[in-house]
Structure formats: C-alpha cells, structure tokens
Amino acid sequence: MHAGGCGGIFRNCRAFVKGCFAVPLDHVFAFEAKLLAASIAINFAWQNGWHRIWLESDSSYVVQLLSSRPEQVPWRIRQAWQCCIYQISKMEFQVSHIFREGDQVADALSKHALGLEVDSWWANSPSFCSLLVGNDCMGRESFRFS
C-alpha cells in the first residue's frame, strides 16, 4: 500500500481533448487505484453531461469488473463503486483493455497527482503532458522496452 494518484484524459470521437484530471489518493493498493481512477473518470463524465463514453484501461481487472458489475469490491471503495455502477447504468457505456503503452497521458497525469493536495481539472491538456497528447494524436507508438 502506498500513496497514489490517478489521472485520465477525455477525448471526443476525433481524438480532440475535452478535459483531463489528476486526483491524489490516500494510501491504496495498485488495483484499488486503478478501480478508483475508472470510477472518478466516470463521475467526471457524469458531471459534465457526457453520457456516452468509452473507457479504456490498462487494467484487465478493471475492465472485467466494469463489464460484469459485481457488487463485491474492496470495502474501502464500495461507496464510489456503487455510485459508478449507478452512473454507467444510465449511460451508453463501453469499456475495453489497452496495453500499458497506450496509456502514457493517464500515467503522466497520475504521476502529477502525487504532488497535488486537491483534485485538478484541465479543459485542455496541461503543458506537462501536451507532447504525449500530440504523439497520441499523430499515432506515434511509444513502447517501453527493458
């Protein structure tokens, strides 16, 4: 368990940025952080009136949970999960798995959240991740090799 953060980017069907978020999290396990990131993203979409969303996650665990929508999740995030399930039941909602390399903007936003004390929202991509957003829009691959 460690202090964490989560982040995400919203795009329209043409890949233009509609908004980005970074949210600091208390001490959480990695799988809890991924699940919270998805529920926070869904909540941001709900608040903005975006009721037609396609969520991509590099966590197959999150994709499986959002697809099957079980009621049993870790107790510390149960309330956020129940709200999330309600919201997606009222949306046109899709979820799919992407490889870790396809999630670099969200990773940059998550790392940025570690230094924050409050939730942050940007209507456009913040300067610290605009290069990554540009690379995504141009279809540049960014694989991580060891």
UniProtKB/TrEMBL annotation:
Gene Ontology MF term list: nucleic acid binding; RNA-DNA hybrid ribonuclease activity
Gene3D superfamilies with a match to the protein in the record: Ribonuclease H-like superfamily/Ribonuclease H
RNase H type-1 domain mapped to chain residues: 3-113
Signal peptide (from-to): none
InterPro entries found in the cross-reference section: RNase_H-like, RNase_H-like_dom_plant, RNaseH-like_sf, RNaseH_domain, RNaseH_sf
Entry-linked CDD domains: RNase_H_like
Protein name: RNase H type-1 domain-containing protein
Source organism of the structure: Dipteronia dyeriana
Lineage: Eukaryota, Viridiplantae, Streptophyta, Embryophyta, Tracheophyta
